[in-house]
């Protein structure tokens, strides 16, 4: 049995020239009403413009009551960690402990490099910047007087409010390369890849668990979540065409190229159910879905699939 999450279409709506937030909040409320366990928002400044995720999730928190709220995924290196810690703590308070920070280092492509340059952040230093920044966030979330010497100098002061959850919101690392698996095993609360196949992920999940044991951690304390792209259609060929067009429009790369990097499924409800079950069987306890097509219709079908699976 796995939890099911819904990714809000912030990027898609901006690409369509529909910048209003009210429809996004309505989709969040609808998803929670259908039983989705979590609601998510992606992150980008200029490379793939969309609504700022933590700001949007604060509004979602005020409109929902049960669903967890997460970033899929946040780029912490683009933010001053003192400000990020303050924002995240506030959203965690608004949501009463429902925030999850999915984090990543960003893909090495020209428009993302340009985004980092525009933010005044050295792209080559993004991994160390992210890791130190998150350590500083956790120190600030303690609510104790914090002094820090490093990329950022904090001469002292206590952050307020502290997060609702003691220690702050859980942090899930999105990387799948060997170095990213080590980062997750040693210091993150969850692993949150974007694919590929269940068999490959099961092997990498076993690696994460083994690395966690080597680091003196209980691997059961790490959540395995996965980010998947789904189009449900009784005509599988039509669903596949829709996904390919969607990926090319979203990333500027051919759909088949992106499919090799990301887990996608286009097909009927029965096939979608089997596909989702395969990720749960691989060990994923939380599945976050990026839906392609009419979101209200797709959400209804996912809710029906969930009943079929007994989730």
Automatic annotation (TrEMBL):
SUPFAM superfamilies cross-referenced by the UniProt entry: Bacterial luciferase-like (SSF51679)
Domain Luciferase-like: 3-307
Annotated keywords: Oxidoreductase
Annotated Pfam families: Bac_luciferase
GO MF annotations, alphabetized: oxidoreductase activity, acting on paired donors, with incorporation or reduction of molecular oxygen
Organism superkingdom: Bacteria
Listed InterPro entries: F420-G6PD/mer (IPR050564), Luciferase-like_dom (IPR011251), Luciferase-like_sf (IPR036661)
Protein name: LLM class F420-dependent oxidoreductase
Organism: Minwuia thermotolerans
């Amino acid at each position: 049995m796995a939890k099911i999450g819904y990714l809000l279409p912030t990027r898609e709506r901006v690409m369509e020239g529909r910048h209003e937030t009210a429809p996004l909040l309505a989709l969040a409320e609808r998803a929670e009403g259908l039983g989705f366990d979590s609601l998510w928002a992606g992150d980008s400044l200029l490379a793939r413009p969309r609504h700022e995720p933590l700001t949007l999730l604060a509004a979602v928190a005020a409109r929902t009551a049960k669903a967890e709220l997460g970033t899929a995924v946040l780029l912490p290196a683009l933010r001053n960690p003192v400000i990020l810690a303050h924002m995240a703590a506030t959203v965690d308070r608004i949501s009463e402990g429902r925030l999850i920070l999915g984090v990543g280092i960003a893909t090495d492509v020209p428009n993302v490099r340009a985004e980092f340059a525009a933010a005044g952040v050295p792209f080559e230093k993004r991994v160390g910047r992210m890791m130190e920044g998150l350590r500083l966030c956790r120190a600030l979330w303690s609510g104790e007087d914090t002094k820090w010497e490093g990329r950022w100098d904090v001469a002292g002061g206590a952050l307020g409010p502290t997060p609702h959850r003691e220690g702050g919101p859980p942090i899930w690392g999105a990387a799948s390369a060997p170095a990213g698996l080590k980062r997750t095993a040693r210091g993150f609360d969850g692993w949150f890849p974007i694919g590929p196949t269940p068999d490959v992920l099961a092997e990498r999940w076993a690696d994460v668990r083994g690395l966690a044991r080597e680091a003196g951690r209980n691997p059961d304390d790490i959540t395995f979540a996965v980010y998947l792209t789904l189009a449900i259609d009784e005509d599988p060929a039509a669903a596949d065409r829709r996904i390919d067009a969607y990926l090319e429009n979203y990333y500027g790369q051919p759909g088949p190229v992106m499919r090799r990097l990301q887990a996608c499924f286009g097909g009927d409800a029965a096939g979608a159910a089997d596909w989702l079950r395969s990720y749960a069987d691989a060990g994923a306890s939380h599945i976050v879905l990026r839906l392609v097509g009419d979101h209200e219709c797709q959400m209804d079908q996912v809710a029906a699939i969930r009943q079929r699976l007994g989730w």
